[in-house]
Amino acid sequence: MQSTLNCQLTPPCPRLRIVAVVLAAGTASRMGGRPKCLLQRDGQTLLNRLLTALENAGIDETVLVLGHKADIIQTSLSTRAHATLKGPQWPAMPIHQVLNPQPTDGQNSSLHLGLAKAQSLQAQWLMVALADQPLLNAADLQALIAAVKASPAGTQMLQPWVEHQPGNPVMLSQKVMSDLLAQSQGATFSSGLPSKDLPGGKEWRQRHPQQVHQWTTSNPHYKVDMDTPEDIAALQTKYGVALTWDTPI
Fold it and tell me: What domain count does the chain have?
């Protein structure tokens, strides 16, 4: 997929330093409180599959935002398979864990905690990923990076669009990260501004539509995520992919 996109950056096309922010703090109320990232595909949790895919895709560092059932999720990380596409000479991708003490405040509260950590990691672009997308693989993530390089001049946010619907992960530039963080000054997550009112990518997109690139793709991997037990059943029916719960909650 990468070979069909022409890099629009100054030649020679540079390697971008990309940090991923993985949002895995949600309360999963529609799953009965079971963290969706602990669903297993082929014996591996969705979170561990994603982290390995990020590493195989060449992501430099990852910020993992945890909250609900953080202790159980942290324990599950010890079973993650190592990257297979990078040779033994490559260092492991660093994973920085951040805890959201108020996960009920919603996804934007986790996003801002992740952005605050990512800002210190000198990223040129951020890949904001959900931890419950069972079809995503390293090639999908590499295609997103290639799409950023081929995007129109002035693009600051890129989101995959599949069948006229927005997908994930979303790519954010340094400018978007700085803009969002500037609006969170004073939100302490224990006092001050309520973290549930923090702006996210949707709000930034509405204010700056000219700087957002809707990358049209037919790849359904970007739009499939797991919110309800019905989604799990539909995944097996449509794609033949079975997800199971292994960790008792």
Answer: 1
